Please model this.
Amino acid sequence: MINNFLKKASFKVLLLIALCFIVFRTQGQNLRQDPRLRGIDTMVNRVLRDWHVVGCAVAVVEKGKVIYANGFGYRDLEQKLPVTPNTVFSIASCTKAFTGQLIGTLVTDGKLDINKPVHGYYPELVFYNDLLTNNVTVKDMLTHRTGLPRHDWLTHSKVPLSMDSIVYRIRFLEPSAGFREELKYCNLMYTVLGGLVQKLSGKTWEAYMKEKILAPLEMGSTSSLISDLDKSSEYSLGYTLRGDTIIKGTPGSDGANPAGSMNSSVNDMAKWLIAMTNDGKYKGRQVLSAKFIREATSPQMSAPSHPRPGLPAYPDCYFGDYGYGWNIASYRGHYEVTHSGDLPLYSSTTSFFPTDSLGIVVLVNKFDATIAEIITAQIADKMLSLLYKNWNGLILARQPKAGSPASVQKRPAGAQLTHPLNDYTGTYLHPAYGSIVISSINDTLHATHNGQPIFFEHLSFDIFRARVPGGRLQFHMNTVGDIISLSGALEPEVADITFLKKKN
Model:
């Protein structure tokens, strides 16, 4: 998460740097250039320029070997520190595939049957209704088919919630689809799987990850806590663009999250891809279960037939099913296994093609996984000798322009609040989403969610614009006119989440 904004650089400076990327010496390994990758540096630099990216790293593996690894731009723009293949980034939701494979080690060791109800292994885990509690399996959680949508704002907090607290709150979360009816991506299910790992192994998720996967694959630069990123000897700062200004943020301070907290370099991720494309073998040793890899990378839950719905740029990329921490798709006639990751300040894509023994990883120090996906697609086309397609131009053309109706949120005409300010102040509670505290400072209402300040601006009557999903929070009164609750679309796929005002 962004803790604070430290430094600003003008957008014009960024453009100048981007234009210079082509002549800037990229920080690659001493690898002999594969002729299929001719022009890759120019292509990557063009993407970084067009999408206003400070830096990224790329690695390609084929038939068990690293054939390309390179860094582009800067990991620290102010200090002019370049990205190299050893630069560590947050990999965000690419973490899920690691957690899925860690579950596989429990299966291989006979500690877990993923087809049995998880409640039998983890009695503390209770769902919204008895149907889910009595029937949800680990396989359902791995494949996002419990019916629960994201509910990501449950974990929004100044102080990270403990695993026990997250597990307890699951019971209050409303599903948005029937059990096993459709794919509903839910980070919380992977977070809770970390608690199951600890329950069955006796070790924390991060310790067990290091023992079973990271150490055997010699992934020495990879860590499992968000707060470990800036402890790396060579890590990338994250950047975002606000208007015409580049804003540098600091790495987050949160702890373990089996859904998205790992950090790695492309050199380390290349080792992971070597194992994934070689039936779990690394340097002749069977590190991961070949059987579980095949299961994890096969379609387990159907999804809409286009992985990127509504984009005509993808007419030859079919399906979009889910395995265990992996999306499964047909990419221009090739079997692709992939997953992207997005966190504030960072994005990533990890992909491999099992029948082609090809793997690609792209790590970026800006929030927008589209960037990594474009680079991945253009490298895949080169490596698979496919007809050229200008992915960058096709997708860039689909982006809303600044100032266009799609990028501007209209503000309704304001009307006065219905009550004096002090009537709104107090603590509002929800059993899963925690607390929203409303206070009055200098005749203005302010809000915090679980101790974390959120943008809170009056719009009209008792409706406020807020930095929450849906962008709105609204106060409600009872039949005698007392303010009794506050609600908003914190999870857009279910009814508004309602926080009840705590009585004095």
The first helix runs from residue 11 to 20. The domain at 101-200 is CATH 1.20.58 (Methane Monooxygenase Hydroxylase; Chain G, domain 1).
